[in-house]
């Protein structure tokens, strides 16, 4: 009998025996397979080239577009929530007509705006503190007081700021999809501002507790992050 010394010890011998059995078509018990060493797996780099590329800093243009979309989504939510309250609490036909127009347009705008956010890996934003305070004031008001707050804070001041911000981004962005979306939104937004101005009582809207809602066109020009 000729014996051969196999490097690697008993586990190496077991591996050779299993390989020989498999080559001959023999059935190998499961417990024997369990003793076999696991095959080596090639290590994959933790960061592929595409992943490393996604970690590059965003350009100024991209940061501005992200900030615009965030503000546009929050503004859309404010307009829609306030319009629902107006349909519940206002008895003024002009205010109710405006609210119905705003709510219908918001339902059409929202799906595409969400797709623009998702394409950039962004979630739908929450209302900021000023917007939340405005809705809280509306929720506590009724009748003419409600109409004054709604027309001043939401339908005129906030809407005018929305329009100005959309116009600025339309002139600045190079994204064709974003440009087309803005171009589709502006006519309806301008029409709603006209309706709001017509609904304002003569003498202008009264200031209800100060300007609680920040205009997108005035208060949101902090440096993009």
Characterization of the model:
- The chain is mainly α and 225 residues long.
- The protein has helices at residues 9-23, 30-34, 49-54, 60-89, 93-119, 129-140, 143-172, 176-199.
- The longest helix is centred in the first third of the chain and has 30 residues, at 60-89.
- Residues 44-53 and 205-225 have low confidence and may be disordered.
Which segments are poorly predicted (pLDDT under 50) over 5 or more consecutive residues? 44-53, 205-225
Query: Considering DSSP H and I runs of 4 or more, what fraction of the residues is helical?
Result: 55-70%
Shape verdict: elongated
Percent strand equals under 5%
The chain-level mean pLDDT equals 79
Number of strands: 0
| CA(first)-CA(last) distance | 78 Å
Secondary-structure element series: HHHHHHHH
Computed over alpha carbons, the radius of gyration is 32 Å
Largest sheet: none
Annotation field: number of helices: 8
Structural class: mainly alpha
């Amino acid at each position: 009998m000729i014996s051969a010394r196999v490097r690697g010890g008993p586990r190496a011998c077991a591996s050779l025996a299993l390989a020989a059995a498999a080559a001959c078509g023999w059935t190998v018990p499961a417990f024997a397979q369990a003793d076999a060493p696991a095959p080596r797996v090639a290590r994959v780099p933790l960061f592929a080239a595409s992943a490393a590329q996604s970690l590059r800093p965003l350009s100024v243009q991209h940061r501005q577009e992200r900030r615009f979309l965030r503000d546009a989504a929050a503004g859309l939510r404010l307009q829609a929530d306030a319009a629902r309250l107006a349909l519940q609490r206002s008895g003024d036909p002009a205010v109710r007509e405006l609210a119905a127009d705003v709510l219908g347009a918001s339902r059409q705008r929202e799906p595409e705006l969400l797709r623009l956010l998702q394409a950039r890996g962004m979630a739908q934003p929450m209302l900021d503190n000023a917007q939340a305070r405005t809705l809280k004031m509306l929720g506590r008001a009724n009748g003419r007081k409600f109409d004054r707050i709604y027309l001043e804070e939401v339908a005129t001041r906030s809407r005018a700021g929305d329009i100005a911000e959309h116009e600025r981004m339309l002139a600045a962005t190079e994204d064709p999809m974003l440009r087309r979306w803005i171009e589709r939104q502006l006519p309806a937004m301008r029409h709603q501002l006209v309706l709001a101005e017509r609904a304002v009582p003569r003498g202008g809207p009264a200031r209800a507790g100060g300007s609680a809602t920040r205009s997108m066109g005035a208060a949101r020009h902090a440096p993009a992050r």
